[in-house]
């Protein structure tokens, strides 16, 4: 086993104390101290450097049955993280290596070597393995190309377009020959970013007026693909603007994650009949077979600057919860990252 002698005795970590009803409240969580322990056989001890906060974590805070188990009450939460190995008893992983793993929401983590993927800090900034080259990037890639079956010449609408997934969806569509890319986001600054920096053809602030009217104005010839990150009136508007043979990939519905009552469905689903439209949900976890193809294709665009990305970086484990709440509020532009 290799190890370093300068480890602290304790690591801070975030626990879920009670299951939030509606918007999560600070008293549903606690930042607690836990002993830093040496890795057992086959394990590594990682000093986390970047933590991911993601909308799906809201789902894991509730007890509802889902594709992934709820966070346990009184225990540390989980999430994507990148860190440096500071002690290792795992074959193939040495002190000084950087790894991507799933034990976020804490400063130090003991992780099985099997669940730690080595990443190269010289190939790309470490935080990008959580965003543009990581889970959110693959979500954009798989959802657009596989679930929505994007093809050259399609007009594409994406909601949550200034966020981690949405910004990448629109740019991949542009780089792959979309006839028109339209995005919606929640502020004038975000709308400006979409058009002026990300190269969208049109964008609007969904808070400025009915989404259906703003979408019709931005896409007078209709849309062939809608990548849904939001649900609600965005989804209804997209169905209303869908062209014949249109496809809707349902990635997320952030507008309903804090609802205490079920949200009503779109009133115009019958349009799927006349348009022969298709609507299909997907989970990134089912598309990891595309991971190497995704990195091969997207990493050069990121390196050349053809595909731009933003990160909103919040510093300190003590601000991990606020960063998460900030994602739900829309404080972030691009991927929300916590830097330790
Ligand atoms: N299916 C999968 O496997 C998968 C994987 C990853 C992510 N997702 C989903 O993809 C979506 C985007 O995730 P992300 O990680 O890229 O997050 P993100 O877009 O970076 O952050 C979430 C954004 O949602 C917007 N938002 C919040 N409340 C809203 C509302 N009521 N109406 C419209 N927009 C609202 C905010 O931006 P504004 O300022 O624009 O409001 C906020 O910045 C989420 O729905 C997430 O659950 C799904």
UniProtKB/TrEMBL annotation:
Record-given protein name: NADP-dependent oxidoreductase
Any Pfam family: ADH_N_2
Keyword set, alphabetical order: Oxidoreductase
InterPro entries per record: ADH-like_C, ADH_N_2, ER, GroES-like_sf, MDR_fam, NAD(P)-bd_dom_sf
Annotated Enoyl reductase (ER) domain residues: 25-338
PANTHER family, per database record: PROSTAGLANDIN REDUCTASE, PROSTAGLANDIN REDUCTASE 1
């Amino acid at each position: 086993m290799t190890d370093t002698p300068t480890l602290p005795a304790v690591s801070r970590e975030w626990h879920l104390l009670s299951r939030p009803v509606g918007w999560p409240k600070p008293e549903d969580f606690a930042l607690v101290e836990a002993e830093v322990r040496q890795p057992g056989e086959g394990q590594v001890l990682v000093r986390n450097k970047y933590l991911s906060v993601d909308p799906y974590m809201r789902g894991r805070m509730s007890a509802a049955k889902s594709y992934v188990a709820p966070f346990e009450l009184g225990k540390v939460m989980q999430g994507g993280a990148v860190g440096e190995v500071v002690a290792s008893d795992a074959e193939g992983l040495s002190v000084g290596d950087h790894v991507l793993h799933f034990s976020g929401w804490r400063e130090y983590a003991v992780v099985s070597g099997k669940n730690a993927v080595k990443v190269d800090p010289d190939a790309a900034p470490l935080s990008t393995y959580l965003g543009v080259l990581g889970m959110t990037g693959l979500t954009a890639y798989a959802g657009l190309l596989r679930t929505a079956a994007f093809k050259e010449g399609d007009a594409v609408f994406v909601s949550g377009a200034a966020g981690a997934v949405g910004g990448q969806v629109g740019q991949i569509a542009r780089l792959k020959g979309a006839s028109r890319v339209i995005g919606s986001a929640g502020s004038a600054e975000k709308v400006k970013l979409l058009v002026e920096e990300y190269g969208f053809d049109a964008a609007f602030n969904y808070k400025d007026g009915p989404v259906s009217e703003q979408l019709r104005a931005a896409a007078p010839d209709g849309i062939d693909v809608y990548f849904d990150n939001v649900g609600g009136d965005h989804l209804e508007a997209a169905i209303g603007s869908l062209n014949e043979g249109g496809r809707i990939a349902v990635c997320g519905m952030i507008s309903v994650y804090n609802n205490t009552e079920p949200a009503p469905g779109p009133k115009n689903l019958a349009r799927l009949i006349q348009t022969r439209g298709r609507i299909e949900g997907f989970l990134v976890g089912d598309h990891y077979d595309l991971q190497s193809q995704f990195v091969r294709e997207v990493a050069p665009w990121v390196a050349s600057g053809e595909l731009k990305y933003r990160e909103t970086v919040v510093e300190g484990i003590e601000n991990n919860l606020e960063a998460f709440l900030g994602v739900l509020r829309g404080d972030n532009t691009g991927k929300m990252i916590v830097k330790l």
